[in-house]
Amino acid sequence: MKTLQVYSVIFSIIVTALACELRETNEEIQSKRHVEEYINKTRPFVVDNPRYRLHYHIAPPVGWINDPAGFTYYKENYHVFYEYNPFNTSYGKTHWGHVISKDLVTWTQLPMALIPEEELCFSGSAIEIEGTLVLMYTAHKKNESSFNETQYLAFSNDGVVFNKYVKNPVISFANNNSLDFRDPKVWRHGDRYYVVIGSRSSDDKGRVLLYKSKDMEYWEYVSEIAKNNGDLGYMWECPDFFELNGRFVLLISPQGLTNKTTDRYQNQYQVGYIIGTFDYATGNFKEEIAFQELDYGHDFYTTQTLEHEGIRHLIGWMGTWYAIFPEREDGWAGAMTITRQLTLNGDRILMKPVQAIENLRGPPIFDGYLEPDNIISLNQTGELIITVNLTEDLILNIRGENDISLIILKWDMATKKVVLDRNGEIRQGEWKPVLSTSWRVFLDASSIEVFCGEGEMTFTSRVYPNGMWRVVNMSVQAVNVTAYALYRSVPL
Ligand SMILES: *[C@@H]1O[C@H](CO)[C@@H](O)[C@H](O)[C@H]1NC(C)=O
Ligand SMILES: *[C@@H]1O[C@H](CO)[C@@H](O)[C@H](O)[C@H]1NC(C)=O
Ligand SMILES: *[C@@H]1O[C@H](CO)[C@@H](O)[C@H](O)[C@H]1NC(C)=O
Ligand SMILES: *[C@@H]1O[C@H](CO)[C@@H](O)[C@H](O)[C@H]1NC(C)=O
Ligand SMILES: *[C@@H]1O[C@H](CO)[C@@H](O)[C@H](O)[C@H]1NC(C)=O
Ligand SMILES: *[C@@H]1O[C@H](CO)[C@@H](O)[C@H](O)[C@H]1NC(C)=O
Ligand SMILES: *[C@@H]1O[C@H](CO)[C@@H](O)[C@H](O)[C@H]1NC(C)=O
Ligand SMILES: *[C@@H]1O[C@H](CO)[C@@H](O)[C@H](O)[C@H]1NC(C)=O
Ligand SMILES: *[C@@H]1O[C@H](CO)[C@@H](O)[C@H](O)[C@H]1NC(C)=O
Ligand SMILES: *[C@@H]1O[C@H](CO)[C@@H](O)[C@H](O)[C@H]1NC(C)=O
After folding, report:
1. Which residues are catalytic?
2. pTM of this prediction?
3. Do 55 and 380 form a contact (C-beta atoms < 8 A)?
4. In this protein, which residues make up the domain named Glycosyl hydrolase family 32 N-terminal (predicted)?
């Protein structure tokens, strides 16, 4: 207890010292205002074109969104930041957008947290230090021939306005100086801060580098905690490193994984995890369970987690780089997944929807067995709870009222697989229920998320229905379904 108090004093001195050297130039203030004005001016077009506009997923007010960042709890709010280009529905001038929530379900938009100056503001993380919210992010600088990635700090005392640190960068090159060096995820352990950073080695292997510091400014290289020593790609983005049920989990977003022969790794890039043991004294992470992909859907790349009140939450980008994003015509592109709660079951992570999402439910729309001619009519949102009889096939046709087909969600008894068929693009995997044999299916205006059983298998995909949702029984088995509409919890 006493030791903790001493540390607190030291931390507070450090932050006070750092905070004296903040800057927000007039130019920066002007740019922030300019961005907010631009958003206000272009918002009506988005609001007037709501066909794909999500009701309970974080999405950009206008423009382009990708990686989540800075997932943290500060001054009684959860904070999520995201890589954001307000000026285009394609990736470009990367800012940090910012939303907050009391319950991880209902989100309020805040002003731009970081604007690019000489650097693009790539992903990173956040940590509270004695009342100050500290962001650590990757400054990406590029010219025609090359680019450079270093790690920057920014500070806020109210969780709204952020000032960059004058002495940036705080980590200026990767060990062995590889170019790709990004997405710092910082945490505190004992009297030290630690950060893991994604990297590409000079021999083109994905790897994760670990650094430590006692003041967030001077960082000491500790170790390469993991590296691709086989077929796990050339670059590992968005690393996250945490304890879950007493074991250490390294969560990564690898690029260049070529092993697409099985049901796994069907997307352009992946998100997955390695389970092992870790020794803070040596910085040695020892792999026990090899890389496993986290989600089975079409659109799931880059994630970040936060532990608060003993629960480890995850939020991810519900997107991929090569997707078409039909909502671009409506002035925006991309979204985050709903927040999930992580636990470990044996060697596998379970992902469940955060509990508070149940508060969005309206009265049940359907409750009972789907008869041959039954169609469940939803509007733009819905949650279906489906009890699966594993001894027979189950087939549901999920589509817009004006579609002939769109999604087929299936339990294939012969192969023991759950199948999500999006217009012929199949994603599937063998399902061995750990306990419950039901599915929770979340439909929003342009997305579907399926959680099987206790969350041992999930599918996250963008889908674009023509009209309101319809769910049609095509099964052999009598399908037991409870369905709810879900209320809006994000700004239109
Ligand atoms: C943008 O609109 C919001 C909400 O209407 C308003 O609070 C804010 O002042 C506006 N910002 C600018 C820079 O016009
Ligand atoms: C938006 O991004 C696209 C693709 O990068 C580019 O071709 C286009 O010029 C950009 N538009 C604006 C207004 O910057
Ligand atoms: C481009 O950026 C790289 C990396 O920062 C730098 O080494 C190089 O000198 C720059 N080239 C030009 C033409 O500015
Ligand atoms: C750095 O490079 C040296 C020399 O090529 C190599 O022996 C060493 O393993 C590398 N270290 C890391 C962390 O990549
Ligand atoms: C990036 O720029 C920093 C200076 O800010 C420099 O120390 C570092 O070596 C550069 N990295 C590469 C890979 O050139
Ligand atoms: C790739 O496939 C081979 C053969 O099926 C397997 O041994 C290896 O573990 C796979 N690699 C990954 C990263 O899953
Ligand atoms: C729908 O469900 C019923 C049982 O409630 C079943 O008899 C019927 O064959 C199912 N399939 C179709 C295509 O209607
Ligand atoms: C769908 O919208 C219509 C028209 O606004 C409304 O009457 C109906 O109750 C809604 N249905 C559901 C399931 O929310
Ligand atoms: C599952 O289906 C089989 C075959 O139709 C039936 O005998 C059994 O009662 C069903 N189980 C449940 C829990 O509905
Ligand atoms: C139908 O599903 C609900 C949960 O949605 C469950 O409570 C109920 O027991 C199920 N009915 C049968 C007969 O399996």
Report:
1. 67
2. 0.94
3. yes
4. 57-353
